[in-house]
Amino acid sequence: MTLTLPATLASYFAAKNRHDTPALLGCFSAQARVRDEGQDITGLPAIRAWIEQTSARYAVQAEPLDCREEAGRRIVRANVSGNFPGSPAVLTFRFGLAADGRIDALEIG
Question: Does domain 7-108 have CATH number 3.10.450.50?
Answer without folding.
Answer: yes
